[in-house]
Amino acid sequence: MMLNVATVVARPPIPPIGTREELIDTLGLAAEIEHAIMCQYLYAAFSINRLGSSAGGSSGPSPGNRTSPELSPEEAEVGRTFAIELLKIARQEMEHLGIVTNLLISVGAPPDFDRPNLPLQRDYYAVDLPFRLLPFGDDFLTLSAQLEASTSSYDEHLAPRPYYPTVAAIYERLHAGFQALDGPTLFLGAKDPQISNADFGAAPNQVWYDLKLLPVTDLPSALAAIDLIRIQGEGATAEDPHSHWAIVRRLKGMWDALSPQARRALLWPVPANPVTQQRGDVDPTVPCVVLSDPRAVALSRLANRAYELILLLLARLYGRNDATAADRQMYLRYAFFPLMTVVTRPVGEILVQLPAGDGEHCAACTFELDGPIRTYPDRSSFHVQLGERLSHLATGFAAAAKLEDMPARLQFVATNVAYIRDRVLGYLGGGDG
Fold first, then answer.
1. Per-residue pLDDT for 59 more than 60?
2. Rounded CA gap, 309 and 306, in Å?
3. Among 204, 238, 243, 412, which residue's Cβ finds the most Cβ atoms within 10 Å?
4. What does the pLDDT look like over 104-119, one tens digit per residue?
5. E strand or H helix at 308, and its extent?
């Protein structure tokens, strides 16, 4: 009998979760997907032009020479709304990553802050959705609506299939998996360090910066954590106005109402899927724009290193290791505030003022990772490397700020990075940090 090759290599249907290993694998899948989605929303937010004109550096044919029509006050406010809502969703996607990490820790697994580079190949996660870095606009709004869709929008959504039709379907499988596996030994890491609102001085049910990080210690708290992620994404009901699904639909209505001229004025000419070099882990069928302007490449790589350091600090925060209570406070202090708010975000806003180097686009954050995000169990080794990384970042940003035609704002970033380095080195050397 001749076998059909397509049948032999076809992906089998995804079964229900039946073991701890399968539960951990699926939680790791969810963590990496939330991580990728967070980057997608940040990228779209950074593509919104709130300056009123489109820059792209002084070199190259047009983005630097293209001027935008003046926006009306109402149109400018629409642009601010786009950016605010996208950043809010990005924060909540980071919250989802934190909650999934709490779920991983609770069942005895280490944190997972890894992910491959974007754009992702369809088979990598068995998710029937594109994961790409897209500027805000029609394509992004179509993609984000797919990401936030509910499983109930698909017929026979409970039937096994080779690919997850929605992100919500992953959580549906996890919800059932936790219930099936519940028992006296499931929550092996229930007492291990997790991150919750209490770590920021907020009450357990208090919404803090649009976030509600829930600790996980047993089945009820695990199911509540999964339900929170699903409700924030797809909504408690089809008409829930606070869900990501509803926000994306509102943004689409506002976008559709704008004139073509206003749309152009509200966006930087950022490319889809930028990278600083060719990458072997991205989808080979999706075109990428390789940054080539030296300033853009240098600054984007520094941004990626700062982003990587945030992830390393987060990996050290979660789970059982030899970090002291004071160490954890230091990691928390620098991962969630200075590195995110005075480095990652401003650098994302500076990059769009530089040319990509292809004569058509401006530069943008690429959110590339050069390797896995490792969890360092040894305090002294991690602290030596933390000091080294911050020193390298401070030196790199200081050098980048001196490059010709670099936006002046970068000097403030360089000063802030040097300040963070000095404070952390002071702590590591026995000071108060």
1. no
2. 5
3. 243
4. 999 999 999 999 999 9
5. helix 294-317
